[in-house]
Specification:
about 50% helix, binds magnesium ion, Rossmann fold, binds guanosine-5'-triphosphate, about 250 residues, seven-stranded parallel β-sheet, about 15% strand
């Protein structure tokens, strides 16, 4: 089994992209399992094989512990980590070729509390990869680009997994794609763009951050995709294959 973790800021397109990857692999004859780790989600664009909502119930946590929405989501996430053995057993029963793991909307819950890295490290699989979704709708300026890339780097540090950087919603930002891809591959053009947009402390901070991030591989190989039009999916599949199947086509 090979496992793909969907990670990214709230609303960046994780769940919808999970369903598109499911469709792609299924069309190519592989058996795909879906694991939902978001205890608070109401509707998903795919059918779950394994679902944390079978183990934790946000509404009863809110009532029982007199917590607000955020407190109960935090508690639910921490509880989910204690269910890893049960979830693993269910996943083993499904026994897919590929397991797609959809994570909670609030990225800090998955990436920065203990449960996310615990799952990333302890779910058993031959190969694991994280897809970090850079929300195209947020990448409106070069400094936003640097701050999201910083978040992607920070998530990589937390999860300790191979990571593929994806630029989502490319259908909504046709006029920006060229600039964003240039920023992600050409440091001088990104520095120029930042100089035009920011000054003073913001400029210095953005430049220093990106120079230090660049050492470790800054927003490497950003792949634009659209869940709406399907554009970019072939490039994403090739990147997944390079990591999961050592360059072979879909393995079933
Ligand atoms: N135009 C366009 N809309 C998209 C794309 N991907 C996702 N969306 C829309 O963006 C919204 C959020 O998508 P989701 O897949 O729920 O995103 P998510 O990251 O799972 O969201 P949370 O789990 O709540 O953080 C939905 O309304 C999607 O229809 C895309 O590529 N293009
Ligand atoms: Mg989602």
């Amino acid at each position: 089994m090979k496992t793909i973790f969907m990670v990214g800021t709230a609303g960046s397109g994780k769940s919808l992209l999970a369903s598109k990857i499911f469709d792609y692999y299924t069309r190519n004859g592989a058996f795909v399992g879906m694991l939902n780790l978001d205890p608070a989600v109401e509707n998903l664009p795919y059918t779950c094989d394994v679902d944390v909502r079978d183990y934790v119930d946000i509404v009863s946590i809110m009532r029982q512990y007199d917590l607000g929405p955020n407190g109960s989501i935090i508690m639910a996430n921490d509880l989910v980590a204690s269910k890893i053995e049960e979830l693993q057993r269910e996943v083993d029963n499904v026994n897919p070729d590929y397991l797609i793991v959809d994570t909670p909307g609030q990225i800090e819950l998955f990436a920065f509390r203990a449960s996310g890295s615990f799952f990333a490290q302890n779910l058993e699989a031959e190969q694991k990869v994280a897809l970090f979704l850079h929300d195209g709708a947020l990448l409106t300026t070069p400094t936003n680009f640097v701050s999201i890339a910083l978040l992607a780097t920070s998530v990589k540090l937390r999860l300790g997994l191979s990571q593929i950087n994806i630029l989502t919603k490319m259908d909504l930002i046709e006029d920006k794609i060229k600039d964003i891809l240039k920023w992600s591959t050409n440091m001088a053009s990104l520095e120029d763009a930042i100089a035009k947009q920011a000054d003073g402390e913001s400029y210095t901070l953005a430049i220093n951050l990106l120079r230090s991030l660049n050492v470790g591989g800054f927003a490497q190989g950003l792949i634009p995709v659209s869940n709406a039009t399907g554009e970019g999916m072939t490039n994403l599949q090739a990147a997944l294959s390079r990591i999961l199947n050592l360059g072979e086509e879909v393995e079933d």
